[in-house]
Amino acid sequence: MLNKSSSPSSDTSSIIGPGMSVIGDCKTTGAIHIEGHVEGDVEAGAALVVGENAVVQGIVSAEDAVILGRVEGNLTISSRLKVRACGRVEGDLDAQTIVIEEGAVIEGTLKMGANPA
């Protein structure tokens, strides 16, 4: 028998799989892994992964994020952001730590290390 909790856990992961399209905002207290297409804002209370073939069109916020695909919108990451070599961001980046691999494309401004007010 499975025990079910009445409140969501912060270590819960949500997945938007390949070939799946979401039109609307996505918000979770846990982590989210996107392999499909999201047209709307994305907010994750934990980690966010945008897969290599994924596209996100909207404002993104998360604790940590790894971008392998394409994000068209601003990113606000409270801890660490990593844009991999195959990643593309068309928007402004704001994070405590930003790692950009050679080959990644960034079209926007970078703001790193500022403490949120």
Q: What's the layout of helices and strands?
A:
Elements: E1 13-16, E2 21-23, E3 26-28, E4 31-34, E5 37-39, E6 42-44, E7 47-50, E8 55-57, E9 60-62, E10 64-67, E11 70-72, E12 75-83, E13 88-90, E14 93-100, E15 105-107, E16 110-112
Parallel strand pairs: 1-4, 2-5, 3-6, 4-7, 5-8, 6-9, 7-10, 8-11, 9-12, 10-12, 11-13, 12-14, 13-15, 14-16
Description of the structure:
- The protein has 117 residues and is mainly β.
- It is 0% helix and 54% strand.
- The N and C termini lie far apart (46 Å).
- Mean pLDDT is 90; it is low at 1-9.
Low-confidence stretches: 1-9
Mean pLDDT: 90
Number of helices: 0
Structural class: mainly beta
Roughly how much helix do the residues carry, as a percent range? under 10%
Structural descriptors:
117 residues, mainly beta, ten-stranded parallel β-sheet, 16 strands, 54% strand, globular, disordered N terminus
Précis, in short:
The protein is an all-beta fold. The chain has strands at residues 13-16, 21-23, 26-28, 31-34, 37-39, 42-44, 47-50, 55-57, 60-62, 64-67, 70-72, 75-83, 88-90, 93-100, 105-107, 110-112.
